[in-house]
Every structure is written in C-alpha cells, then in structure tokens.
Write a structure and sequence with these properties.
2 copies of one chain form a homodimer. The longest helix of chain A has 35 residues. Helix content of chain A is 57%, strand content 9%. The first copy, chain A, has 2 domains: 63 residues, Multidrug-efflux Transporter Regulator, Chain: A, Domain 2; 59 residues, Multidrug-efflux Transporter Regulator, Chain: A, Domain 2, CATH 1.10.1660.10. The N and C termini of chain A lie far apart (63 Å). Chain A is mainly α. A 3-stranded antiparallel beta sheet of chain A has the order 1-3-2. At the A-B interface, helix 3, strand 4, helix 5, strand 5 and helix 6 of A face helix 3, strand 4, helix 5, strand 5 and helix 6 of B. Strand 5 of chain A pairs antiparallel with strand 4 of chain B. The structure holds a DNA duplex (30 and 30 nucleotides).
Chain lengths: 141, 141
DNA sequence: CTTGACTCTGGAGTTTACTCTAGGGTTTAA
DNA sequence: TTAAACCCTAGAGTAAACTCCAGAGTCAAG
C-alpha cells in the first residue's frame, strides 16, 4: 500500500506557490481535479495534483498556454493500441515546438552573453551595441 | 550611405506577420516607434522596426511578456561608462532567466522523446505512462 | 460555545495583449 | 475623377488567466 497524503486547498496552494483561486480556476478548466471531497464539501488533493500544479507553473513559464498544457498532460501511453499512432504524432509535434523554443532561447542567450562580455569594459567598451544588433549580425562588436 | 527602405504600416504588418492594430498597439506601449511620419500623418517604418517586430514575436513565443521584452530591447551597450555595470547586472539576470527556461524545455523535450519512443510499439507499449511520470521519475518505462 | 481561520459557490473585476468599430482623410489605379 | 484600398484617431470589445468579493458553512483552539 502506498501512503496517500491529502491536502486541503490552502495547503496545496502554499506548497505549489499559487493562490487557492488559481487552483479552483484550474479545476474549472479541467487541468486538475480534487482526489475527493469531504462530507462538508471541502476539496482533498493528492500528491499527484501537486505535481500537476508544479508542471503547469513551469510549463507556463516557457510560453505554453493552459490549453496547450492540458494537451501535454493528456499525452498518455497506455495499453490501448488504437490511439498509439495518434499520441505519437501529437508528441512529435510537441517536440518540434519545444525544440524551436529552445533554439530561440539559445540565440537570445548567446546575444546576452556577448553583451555581458562587452560590458566587462574590454576592448569593445566604447562601442554602441544592442541585443537586436547582436541577434542580427555575426560580427556585431 | 546605406539605403533606408521605408514601409507603410500595412507593408510592415505583412512583412512581420502581425496586424496593423498590433503595430499601433506596440507603438503605444513604447516597444517600437515609426522612423517618421508623412505630411498627411502616415507612419513610415524602417528595416530596424521590422527586426524589432520579429524579435518581439519570437521572444513572446518563449514566454516573455511585452514588458520584459521592452527591458530586453532596452539593453544597450554604449559609450556611457556610467551605466555599464548596471547593464551588465540586468543582462546577467536575463541570462539566468533564459537558461532556466532552456533547462525546463530540455526536461520537457526529454520526456516527450521517451513518450514518442515508447509509442513505437516497442517492448514497453503495454505500459501505462504519462508525461508527468516521465518528468518525475528516472526509470518511468 | 464562541471566535478566527479556513472552506464553499457564484459572480464581478483586472491585467495583458490584442482586435474591432466608427467616422473620417489619403493614395493610386482605371 | 472616382472608387477601391489604404491610412488616421479614439474608444469599445474580446480572450486568457487570473483575482477579488459577498454571503454562507466548517473546523480547531481556548
């Protein structure tokens, strides 16, 4: 048997670093659901919902919408062979999206690093330069 | 002399893949500004504004808000030594933000790839697995 | 057994980032 | 020279993702 720790909405909110309103909003949108309800109607959440909330926060931070996040969370491999090809195609699409985001961030990071280095007061410190120029040129400095 | 191609708002919108309303909205927010205005009040935009629009689109796609993008675009290295340390600190903060986003996307991509491989109907195809389990475990399959 | 912290529902309000409309002037091609 | 296709401003409307509120029930401590 595995121990099933349950949290009230306020506890879960604190652990996940979101507001109780946000949790109820996500429930309404179908992103998470309470494990159960108490006799008086209080929501009980499991560890799994905490993981989902953390996943949502981190995934939101890299530019996915709640709808896209719902799609990501819906990607499940299970014994139903019928949907396997389907799941795979969606997954491959998502990989492309994620790869494109990473490539973009790498470019931005590279430009920022060039800017930081130039800021060191080195040989180029009297140049004029912006992140846009760094992004759009191979030899900006 | 460098040739300065100028665009009307509609031309710029088409080239950047945004609406004319979006361009005017960005101008209002201070993200871009027309190079000049015609006698009749028409905006004229330069190549530089086109680059800015493209930068905004790509940066928005990786989870930055318009305010954050404005900050990024404001990072300029120029001959005023007084602000150099300042610029560098902001730049280093941004690099950290960007690096964190990349790390997060790498984790998501890795999980998606495991899911795609498992979808191939290989040895693990009768397992039940979700992206959350893949993210939260080292040996999910 | 009451008081304060918590929870519930339903609905209104806010912020961000557009998007659209109205009512007008401008450009350009036929 | 006129009509389609563009541009202008000001302001209203929309979608996503919260955030806040009112009015009421629940729970745990003293």
């Amino acid at each position: 048997m595995k121990k099933t720790q349950l949290y009230k909405i306020g506890e879960l909110a604190k652990l996940a670093g979101v507001s109780v309103d946000t949790i109820r909003f996500y429930e309404e949108k179908g992103l998470i659901a309470p494990h159960s309800r108490s006799a008086s109607g209080y929501r009980w959440f499991s560890e799994q919902e905490l993981e989902k909330l953390r996943f949502i926060q981190r995934t939101k931070a890299v530019g996915f919408t709640l709808n896209e996040i719902a799609e990501l969370m819906a990607l499940k491999l299970h014994p139903d062979a019928h949907t396997c090809e389907e799941v795979k195609n969606v997954t491959l699409d998502k990989i492309d999206q994620v790869s494109a985001k990473i490539a973009e961030l790498d470019k931005i990071r590279h430009s920022l690093q060039q800017l930081a280095v130039a800021c060191d007061g080195g040989a180029h410190s009297s140049q004029h330069c912006t992140i846009l120029q760094l992004l759009n040129s191979d030899t900006p400095l």
